[in-house]
Amino acid sequence: MLGQLQNKVVIVTGAAQGIGAAISRVFAQAGAKVVLADIAADIGRKTASDICAAGGEAHFIEADISLREQVNSLVQSAVEHYGKLDIVIHNAASFAIRSAENMSEEYLDKSLSVILRPAFWFTQEALPHFRKQGSGRLIFTSSVTGPTVATPGAANYSAAKSGINGFVKAAAVELAKENITVNAVEPGFIKTDAMDLLADKEGQKRLESYIPRGHMGKPEDIANAMLFFASDEASYITGQSIIVDGASTLVESAALLEQ
What secondary structure does DSSP assign to 147-205, as a single string? Predict the structure, then answer.
């Protein structure tokens, strides 16, 4: 069946809640053994416990992936726990609103340290395990913000996510002959708690009126796109990103939706 990942071992970062939790649930439902990684330990353990209670297999590891040594330890611990590593999904992110003019070094470094730098670190740490078994999947949560559109106050986030897309292309070319694929998913407006950082309830309703599908996406919409990239059916697809946004980035002007 499409998307079956029986006995595959996957690491998911930013897995405690939101999109990361949905990825973990969907992959567990597809038969994968899921290692959830997050700095939110209590929530992460609860998410892993819920997956196990539903019949899946999951293991939580507290990790701050902005630190190289914790990325190394996370990969090592995952392999020690399950004996191998098949898939890495780097989903964790840092989002702080600040204009480019007033962007502090702290905010900029946080975005790069949580979003972009771990792409290199996870790749480097996972490669020996992928090569040992002759295959592997690297999948990244990018965003429409940066690669496709812009959001005021998110220059740091936009730059880091655009960097992810550039990394995906370069790494895909370098690793293609080793049966290791590298791809990304670009979410649009997805209904998670993080949306509350952008707008209140009324503001979110207004945003939805500008989405041709008429509503925000669900975290599972992103998880399902990643499930495809992780599957055997996607083995010839690498260096690509897929936009999951309900067509919101296709409209030339929001005014056209009001006619």
Answer: TTB--TTBHHHHHHHHHHHHHHHHHHHHHGGGTEEEEEEEE-SB-SGGGGGT--HHHHH
- Catalytic amino acids? 157
Helices and strands (H and E) in the chain: how many: 8, 7
**Can you list the positions of beta strands (E) in 91-158?**
136-141
Domains of the chain: 9-239 (3.40.50.720)
Instruction: Give the tens place of pLDDT for each residue, 213-226.
Output: 999 999 999 999 99
8 A C-beta contact, residue 185 and residue 242: yes
C-alpha distances in Å from residue 107, one per residue of 20, 156, 162: 22, 7, 17
- Asked whether the whole model's pTM tops 0.90, one would answer yes
